[in-house]
Amino acid sequence: MSSTTGNSPASTQTPPAPAPQGGLDRKVLLVAGVVVLGAIMSILDVTVVAVAQNTFQNEFGTDAAGAAWTMTGYTLALAAVIPLSSWAVARFGARNVYLTSLVLFTIGSALCAMASSIGMLVAFRVIQGLGGGLLMPVGMMILTKAAGPERVGSVMAVLGIPMLLGPIAGPILGGLLIEKASWHWVFLINVPVGIVAFVYSWIVLRDKQETSRPSIDIIGLVLLSPGLALFLYGISVSAEEGTFLAAKVLIPAAVGLVLILAFIAHALRSKAPLLDLRLFGNRTLSISVIAMTLFMIAFFGASLLYPQYFIGIRGESTLAAGLLLAPQGIGAMITMPIAGRLTDKMGPGKFVLGGLVLIALGMGTFTFLGADSSYWLLCGALFVQGLGMGMTMMPIMSSALATLNSSQVPDGSTLVNVVQQTASSIGTAIISVVLASNLAAHAESKLAIASNAAPEQYDKLVAAGQAPAEVPTQWLDWGASAFAGAFVISAVLIAVTFVPAFFLPRKRIAGAESAPVMMH
């Protein structure tokens, strides 16, 4: 944690030698391999499970809202545990925390594969999330220390690799495992990868672990972690209820919001808060966080829709749906490394604005979805959107950290990850509610989706005289319109993101060069 919070031993550390300018050296790349491997496990698991949503509905006899909890429960656990990352690193050392997280994530994966009900699966996904929640922020601290502040953009581009592989490999891998093996392998695949990641991390992360005995902010912990969990639980239940106005939504969300506000008041007065909110006094960080919040809500909300449209409306298999999503990841793969390197030299502003234009063009295409929209058009739109993602996501994150000094980086990394995970949960909830509401406007569209995603269930409805033997074209059109309406919300949020993005630095960010980034 920052020295202003009293949780960091930074003042007693010997600053490392300045990192070389330009590319990342061999030692940094070895450390990057550790961080990327852990992040791939966490992020890839999200995209794989997204493709498996329809499979979970069929296997466990639940609806879309129930299956969505396999994603929401995971994200809630991440949001609840991330605030502890800075303190945990100060207390136990980054290497120990990282290795423990890998073990917990791997055990959670094995348990998920043995789940026999949707409730068990959600519970085990929470265990996964408790491990996965620390992988990204702690990994970010490890890699930022190794590279130095003058190469934050390049570091963020490396951390973007899992975000590149996620949209490409996740849906394809998920579809392949589900069709060729079983849904269990969606989680079992993490076990050997987790073991390899643990051994690799054990060997590579050999730096001396300087720890302290910081006092944990008990009041902050009691306020923030339950507050985040309750708030996100409330908005997540909205997907199941189909509205934000139900008591099951409003009560926990309101209680959570009150706890979060109480934490803010406490953190601004405390000398050693769980999370140092005084960092928001940094203008660049504040603008970056606002832009990142809007972008993440739009991006993760829309990510829920793509596979459901291809599977539910177009009748594609999970594997085919994954392949159809690949152009988005390919587009990001092209631009992200370039944007990362140039952000260090030119600042993030120009790239983010250009990226948002491309994302708006790509996502705007999906606001006109039909039941027979051209796959060439949709894949082209995904590719253009991917190009924009590579120019947007990581430059925003790098701008949030580039102006922080050495003692602020752990808190800054934790703050960025809290915002990222919270925003992704909010985005998933908002888009789920909008989609459910749109589908409810034409009940037949739900049957149309059921006919493609779960034909055995639809056959029962046909036998019971509750549905026609052949799905009317109009029903599919209504279903496609429901998805198009949900994409409108994401597109509007992308448009709003232009406002904070306009104020991001458009030249090389200075201010942290003289202060080497250190890790507890």
Protein model, in words:
The chain has 520 residues and is mainly α. The longest helix has 33 residues. It is globular and about 70 Å long. The chain starts with 25 loop residues before the first helix and ends in a 19-residue tail after the last helix.
| Low-confidence runs | 1-22, 511-520
Largest sheet: none
Shape: globular
Distance between the termini: 8 Å
Short synopsis of the structure:
The protein has 520 residues and is an all-alpha fold. The protein has 22 helices and no strands.
Task: Record the SSE blueprint.
Elements: H1 26-51, H2 53-60, H3 64-81, H4 85-92, H5 94-113, H6 118-147, H7 152-159, H8 161-180, H9 185-188, H10 190-204, H11 218-241, H12 247-269, H13 283-303, H14 305-313, H15 318-346, H16 349-366, H17 375-390, H18 393-402, H19 409-441, H20 443-453, H21 455-463, H22 473-501
Helix pairs in contact: 1-6, 1-8, 1-10, 2-3, 3-6, 3-11, 3-19, 4-5, 5-6, 5-10, 6-19, 7-15, 7-18, 8-15, 11-12, 11-19, 13-18, 13-19, 13-22, 14-15, 15-17, 16-17, 16-22, 19-22, 20-21, 20-22
Quick tags:
75% helix, disordered C terminus, mainly alpha, disordered N terminus, 520 residues, 22 helices
